[in-house]
Amino acid sequence: LNEPWVAAFAGHGYGTMAPGKADISLAYQVIHHLLLSHGKALQVYRQGGYPGQIGIAVDIEDTLPASEKEEDLEACQRYAEHYAWICTEPLFKGHYPQKLMEWLGQIAPQVNPGDMELINQPLDFLGINYYRGMAIKFDPEGGYLKCKSLHMTAPLYGFTDMGWGVHPQGLKSVLLKLKDNYGNPKIIVTENGCAAPDMVNQAGMVNDWQRIDYLRAHISAAHEAIEAGVNLAGYFHWSLLDNFEWARGYSKRFGLIYVDFTDLRRIPKDSYGWYRDVIARNGIET
User: What is this structure's pTM?
Assistant: First the structure.
């Protein structure tokens, strides 16, 4: 499975993506059933003795409280449990985050006997999709979680074309949290990248220096996490080609290769050559 949180909440809780439903209680039940389907797939895979490795890819933000006020600390914990740990806690510990479940009350997912044992099976790897970090503050008008999220961005980086802050150290932070909380599982960064306002210049080139700076910073953060003992086994950039981005259609470009959507020409961007060289030398330039 890829990003069960997005399918559950963007699709069923907030109505911003297909199938466009807006029912928070339904969204929590959907994410539970997605995790159950993951458990069923694991069983079939193990029973079949198939070669290779099997895991799941979850999207995780780095979260920090906006202040040391108790209300902000609690809001940050709720947000983190709702957004990230709602998947990893049952996967690795066999239960949903307790404080979040107490907060949700009647809209918490209905769990039947045996469900958590099905979800909590050994993984060959955990995939994480990381794009951003958020500062969380208490907000009495902030929906049912009573919190507000603010994009964090590192100095000089600004925001991506999606309006997301650029927070490279958040990738290291997330990797260390996973290491410390779940016994240092094998992790693969299954998605990381940024949308940029890419344009073909008069020379027929795409000078996407913003993406190169983004990747350099995040790959460096991943390397720092490895040096700190994280069992990080791989890193995948999102994406190779500009493509269809859910509700955004073709308006946002994440690719290393520019796609002209009128005639389907492919034009390697500057980031393509840079990333190719990173792979060839197995490291960023010094």
Answer: 0.96
